[in-house]
Amino acid sequence: MKKTTQIHIGGRHFTIDEDAYQKLHHYVESLKFHFSREGETGKEIIEDIENRIAELLEQVISNGKQVVNIEDVNNAINVLGKVEDFEYAGAQEVKSEYDYGSRRNNRRFYRDPDDYYLGGVAGGLGSYFDIDPLWIRLAFVLLFFAKGAGLLVYLILWIVVPKARTTAEKLQMKGRPVNLTTIKDSVNEEYQRFRSSEGVAAARNGFESVVRAIGLVIVAIFKFIIGVIGVSFLVVGCVFLAALIMGVLGVTNVFGHMQLWDGFYMTDLHTYFANTTHLWLAIVALVVVVLIPVIALIYGGVKILFDVKSRHPLLRVFLLTGWILALVLFLTLIFVNIPNSPVEAEETNSTVIDTKKYPGIVLDASDNIIDKNITHYRIFGYRLRYSKWDDALYDKVTLEIQPSDDDQFYLSVKKRIKNVDMYDSDDYMDEIFYSWQLQDSVLFLDRYFNTDDDEFWLFAKVDLTLKVPQGKGIMIKPEVCDMLVPSQRTSYCDELPAGKKWFMSPEGALIQGN
Q1: What pLDDT digit, counting tens, does each position of 6-62 carry?
Q2: Is pLDDT above 50 for 454?
Q3: Measuring CA to CA, which residue among 416, 420, 432, 274 is closest to residue 347?
Q4: Contact assessment for residue 341 and residue 275, using Cβ atoms and an 8 Å cutoff
Q5: Helices 70-80 and 42-58: crossing angle, nearest 10°?
Q6: Which of 450, 303, 300 is nearest to 366 (CA)?
Q7: Could you tell me if residue 138 is left (phi over 0), alpha (psi between -120 and 50 degrees) or otherwise beta?
Q8: Angle at 48 between CA 44 and CA 54, to 5 degrees
């Protein structure tokens, strides 16, 4: 096991084994000795070389490797070049390597601190793309007249792109290899330029600081606006999600008779469908069409507010594909069903009530849902009573008393259904069951009609009409009162006690008698 040492070079800490340390120490000391003859620039050259060594060594450090070995040091020396090679190699050879080498492999995008008017963005772009920065500056000026786009792009690049501060970064900005020769030449060039333009540089740095401060203020305003947008996305998304959940609960009534709210009334939608399967497919498709954008709003708000950087391209493609398919399915179902829009149908059967043996009749009601374990539901604004004992739906009937056109009692049973095809309405009418019976002078009316639970889509109704001839009497039992239409319930049950005898007057209204 080799001994390791902690070293500090180029502003970075490294753990290095003993052999590598000896090799690196000898290399750095030889560089210091060699560049000590450069005078004022020698120290800066050494600092830049040490920074470059630190960058090269940092590239080999990973979670599985924390110790620099001699092979890593040798690779760094090969990149920078040996002192002996630097002393005796011809300058033309080095320059030729730069001229014909691969410039792209060394190039990095930085702001140019030497060729600038504001932040060095144009200079950095010119160096990166190997074009005259003048053309870049002209492009920004032209874009400025496109509603200020040029200024916005320039400020963003100014804030985001780092300035080339070290010699290595300046060389990488120009696409030059970072070795002993290029570092030395760059430092000397910069030193000469600094000596000749100290006043101008100071003025530019001061002006740059002011403009950069203005840019930071603008960026802060943009960040605030973006934050407001993120909060808006989050709030709007949550509101729509809550509304969607309430809508789904209202439609499906998953809580049965425990109504959380009045339900989601979709008359304009469900009246287009005679086929319940098509309706539920349309509802599911509509939920997906609304849900995916709502989730996107919420997720977008979270990303903006919390600066989430994660990307899921496959998930985005999946959600977009699902949204498009759901929208196509919903529109297809609508357009397929519109030409075959369901209709409302009704059927009326009248029966003569034979009361020749009696001067009148007694109206009584039979509660035909006693002990049927009824559960109450609401769907599309309609109340349904479901009995799991016989898998049937029950609903109340209404009763209206009218004058007869002759001397006979008549009982009319009118069935009404919705959402049926015109040619199948007769078959569906047969699925509605209602019973009544006459025993002596007592007419027993079932309070509820029933249908099969699969036929809830019919939203069936049953209305009774009892026609009473002039001069004939009827007695209304209290059990019948809640079957009467509201106006007659008020007249014949609420104002006077039920159980009284009533006669049909010539004017067509019931009057109380003995």
Answers
A1: 887 877 788 888 888 888 788 777 777 776 666 666 677 677 777 777 877 887 887
A2: yes
A3: 416
A4: no
A5: 130
A6: 450
A7: alpha
A8: 145
Tokens representing 257 are: 């008779």
CB 154 within 8 A of CB 120: no
Are the beta carbons of 434 and 413 closer than 8 angstroms? Answer: yes
- Return the beta strands (E) in 276-391 as ranges: 343-353, 360-366, 374-379, 382-387
> Is the predicted pLDDT of residue 497 greater than 70, yes or no?
no
Nearest to 459 by CA among 366, 345, 365: 345
What distance in Å separates the CA atoms of residue 295 and residue 313, rounded to the nearest whole number? 16
Tokens of 360: 């009148």
What's the average model confidence in pLDDT over 334-352? Answer: 79
Residue 29 in 3-state DSSP?
Answer: helix
Provide the 8-state DSSP code for 310: -
Q: Which helix H or strand E contains 508, and what residues bound it? A: none
Tell me which amino acid residue 10 is.
G
If one counts every other C-beta atom within 10 angstroms of the C-beta of residue 4, the result is 17
171 has pLDDT over 70 = no
In angstroms, the CA 483 to CA 414 distance is 15
The answer on pLDDT for 196 being more than 50 is: yes
Residues forming a β-bridge with 65: 62
* Distance separating alpha carbons of residues 296 and 320, to the nearest angstrom: 10
pLDDT digits (tens, 9 = 90+) for 221-247: 777 777 788 788 888 888 888 877 776
Map tokens 């011809």 to a residue.
Answer: 90
- Strand 409-420 relative to strand 343-353, pairing: antiparallel
8 A C-beta contact, residue 458 and residue 404 = no
Strands 392-396 and 382-387: antiparallel
The Cα 467–Cα 36 span in angstroms is 124
Q: Which helix (H) or strand (E) holds 15?
A: strand 12-17
Q: What is the C-alpha to C-alpha distance for residues 114 and 26, in angstroms, rounded to an integer?
A: 34
